[in-house]
What does this fold into?
Amino acid sequence: MIYLDNSATSFPKPKEVQKALNEVFTKYGANPGRSGHSFSLTSALKVNEIREDLASFFNVSRPEKVIFTSGCTEALNLAILGSVQEGGHVICSVNDHNSVLRPLFELKAKGVIDITVVEPENSARLTSKDIEKHIKLNTYMVCVNHISNVDGMEAELEAIGELCAQHCIYFLVDGAQSAGHAKLDMQKQHIDFLAIAPHKGLYALQGVGVLCYSPKVKLLPIKFGGTGTDSINVRQPLEAPEAFESGTIATPAIISLGAGLKFVKEHFEEIVSKLDDLTTYLNYELRNIEGVKVYTHPDNANGVLSFNIKDLPSTEVTSLLDSKYKICARSGLHCAPLKHKFNSTTYQGSVRLSLSYFSTFTEISKTLKAIKEIAKS
Amino acid sequence: MIYLDNSATSFPKPKEVQKALNEVFTKYGANPGRSGHSFSLTSALKVNEIREDLASFFNVSRPEKVIFTSGCTEALNLAILGSVQEGGHVICSVNDHNSVLRPLFELKAKGVIDITVVEPENSARLTSKDIEKHIKLNTYMVCVNHISNVDGMEAELEAIGELCAQHCIYFLVDGAQSAGHAKLDMQKQHIDFLAIAPHKGLYALQGVGVLCYSPKVKLLPIKFGGTGTDSINVRQPLEAPEAFESGTIATPAIISLGAGLKFVKEHFEEIVSKLDDLTTYLNYELRNIEGVKVYTHPDNANGVLSFNIKDLPSTEVTSLLDSKYKICARSGLHCAPLKHKFNSTTYQGSVRLSLSYFSTFTEISKTLKAIKEIAKS
It folds into this structure.
């Protein structure tokens, strides 16, 4: 099997992750932050260590501003719904995933906020220029997809971050595809909310997400329950991180994230350069195949690439890749409808190949050969 | 180490759970419901099989009315916030955990609903009589904790369910402590919402919860994002289960739940009778120790038991149990403040011993010996 669906979830995971996970059946079996016994404290200390590692890796101002959620979608919901300003205006872009669009459009439908959806002028990048012209007096948030999950289009984080800082606007970055694959620095890039899908580029298990936020942010919980703090109070406490982590947290997935993050830190330069090499090769060769249209700009060599073959439905191509060549790829709209409208691929969808550190040159060559055969037949 | 904190999370897990989990690194590594390739379908089919197993075990009308959440807290939040009726009235009880109380009191503080907190008249059971006298014209929901996480007090589900059905009121059961340890039957007990913490009595990993609901229920999503369905639409679809499972679900924890559920099904009678035996023995012997006050009624022999020693702070007792005897127990308020007010233990909290199928007679005897020594000194 050739697995090129790493934007859905990375596979395989590093051996270190599996090893770490086995410790939840021995060393880290208790519920952290719920009891005072040493076995529970061992789990709590481990979770805290991973929180600190994440804060350091993404340059978050303080570890308690790293919130563990159930996934990137919950992280984005917490950021968007938990900081909503009634009567305000939010800027997002066609690159955004439904995990950003759907909470925003829910708020719009309720008459709470207004939204502008930005289209990038430049075919390689979402720029601060694209954003700037849409800023209104009541704009309080800009949402940006760091790396589009459809075609890898990148956003110029630092410039957009600076623009937002100048205007005192929250800058939300959807790092679902980029965390672990590209540099993210909350402070240097002036990011106020950073949402992460650790089961992708950080090689964690599915079942945990992360929201990091800046000191500027005023955030309210969207989920209520036991926090292990101020238990006498039937109202939700507001102290981070507990206020935003009601209920038992996903310790096993968090422990896998700790191991995945360690792996990424140790191999970061290598990961970035490998994704660059393989994506560039893939993009170049695909463009030479007759009948293939590539949607990914060659500058965006970050492991996410989309294409179509003539007017074949993208589902038919992935179905052939799967059944005839045992290649796992994704087709359809990839939960990002506005990007497909923008690319004029709403009807056809697109075939997405998405890479990880474990993808190889041989796998890419075999995949190119398969696509050549499909395009020919 | 003697682990008697199974109400926080069960430990150890059955070997079958660990074995099943290892398969997420091989067979079930893809993201279910997000791609069409066979590797993804293998995960999707497995998740669906577990959904069906849960529906069958709890007698849910249809598998799509079994929703995977991040935990029992999210399940309760979804039930309470997703079915809220403005201007309505909700009945809960002093047995409720903050995961029920805090979402309810959030709605009350916003002026959306009114709440009545019921105190049980009978010292062993929360009865339908306790509930009935508080039903008003605008009461639309009754929330009941099946087994109190503080002292194991049980609720008479079937009678309360019948009462709710007669009055066309939603009947919500918090099954956090009971699922896997006591009989739960959605249809026989007229339950409309059943929230479950699989990492407790179903021996799953932490990081997944379950909400089952009845055909009578009108439920709206509280989290918005990619569902893998109707991707062209920037508004949240409303079809279950996807509408309520936005984002990547916690497949590894769900797979562990599948294995845990299978284990429980195979050992159910044995589990119930073992918990009954050991709790009864523990309760009887504790009552014979001078200076010990037990809060658990002998009729509630379900594995959850609370006590105090004289006027010693409960934290001091668990601290001694931990440091001197390597016994893991929980002290404090256990996220259930109103129950402690009711038991007059707000200041002292209580020491909780909570059992699982893996607890042994020898462990209980050693624990009793330790408590005797502490009470004497």
Q: What stands out?
A: The CA atoms of residues 75 and 341 of chain A lie 26 Å apart. Residues 2-9+267-376 of chain A form a domain with the Aspartate Aminotransferase, domain 1 fold (CATH 3.90.1150.10). Chain A touches chain B through 88 residues (CB under 8 Å). Residues 251-287 of chain A form the longest helix (37 residues).
